[in-house]
Amino acid sequence: MTLNLCKDPWLLFRLTSGDTAMLPLKELGREDLRDIVMPRQDFYGATWQFLIGILQTAFPPQDEDKWLEYYQTPPSPDELAKALAKIEHAFELFGDGPCFMQDFDSLEDGTHVEIASLLIDAPGGNTLKLNTDHFIKRDQVNALSPALAAMALFTLQINAPSGGQGHRTGLRGGGPLTTLVVSSDPSLSLFRRLWLNVLPVNQYRELQPPSPYDESVFPWLAPTRSSKEKGTEVYFSDEGIHPLQQYWAMPRRIRLETTEQKGRCDLTYEQVPVTVTSYRTKNYGINYEGTWSHPLTPYRYDPKKPEQAYFSSKGQPGGIGYRQWHQFLFEDRDQGHLPAKVVARLGASQELLEEELELEDHLSVWVFGFDMDNMKARSWHEARMPFLAMASELIPLFVQEVGGHVNAANDYRKSLRRNCKSAWFGAGDSSGDLSFIDDQFWSATQHDFYALVDRLKADIESGQQTLDTEHCLTWISGLKNHAINLFDALVLSDASQSEHLERKLGARRWLEWTKLDKAYLKKHGLNEKGVARA
């Protein structure tokens, strides 16, 4: 069987009518395409990245005017087919030659592995031995369709966690977060939604595509840079590495194996002419090291040592919430956070969004990724958070102000958790997981936070240096009230639980007396008790 991901119809799209259609990528500009269809959220997020990577690599706009031209009038099938023809040689999924995201070598001497192991959340060998495969059960996925095998492979390569000796992590590290700008406007075509995350190359000259497209972009077009020996690490600035390879990085050495017979895909439950049931693999693939700058991922760095390597933001226990919001949208130099390039570009393009696209009210930042514990996937996180654009010269002040208000919320969050623990267990240690308290607090205060952000933006754009005292007091009072209400619900709601009541009421009083940063209070015209100064 042959399958070329650039030429053949393989991807399932959802149409305006609600129907679905399997189409080739040259149809991506159709006005009636609304979304893609994938059976797993990690595949869904990866396929968005795949399509954005295709457009950025094969069909990049040369400048802002060209970007706007194609946003307003998406490319025809002929235009896209012409662009895709330049890279189709790198997108054959099967065959004797170079295969998409697979080792240049056939790996005949490699280890044979069941196809389920391509799934990041699949149980590992030790998990199977200990019978602790709670996330995905063994024997659930024994065969995949070629299309889903391609997306499983792509998902693994761009997110690859540590995989044992010599099985390399992804270019962005294991389990990176991805942030995309997306629109909730139901009338917006899929192409336009993707195009929001494609960068003009005159602003990002490093993304100017090469001619021809070779292994500098698609590493599987040449023998793998084996990393068994010391000194074989691959860095962003290395000769023979094009920055576009960040979209197509290949840390794992894999060759898919097919069965030339009909079978059922265990993710879609549909019969397909050919299934992929296993793959061959070897260790010591490409070892990406140093600072990279993937356009779809936020990064963090040590602001005191900016010359050191930057690291991609990762999924963490506790998920994604407004406490990270400003760092996903804007650079935070004090804390060492860089937003993804696609987010930063639109975040500083207020005029484009408001006047040319009329989109700002419909936009959000879609954040997603795995929370990994080395080789183990703890959970999948994703969230859609309000998008905000503002003049670039106002961003540092805005970020500094937002950070202060988030810190105030975090002070109340810590106080709530500490005093709930004290009320339940007294002064003794507790090994129980109390993260549910954090989750409830962040959820309860989220609406107030985004209301504060809107007010703060208006204040700063009107020339103020801080949020005014009245609105800061409203924020702090809201934090206190939410914390106390949650404490009452968690600790005091059951009247029958009168044991240690005095201790519980004492903990409640300590919560009421939560202290906030003195400099923060003074800056906003409040005294140490959180009351407006006379």
TrEMBL record:
NCBIfam families: casA_cse1 (TIGR02547). The gene is casA. It comes from Kineobactrum salinum. This is Type I-E CRISPR-associated protein Cse1/CasA.
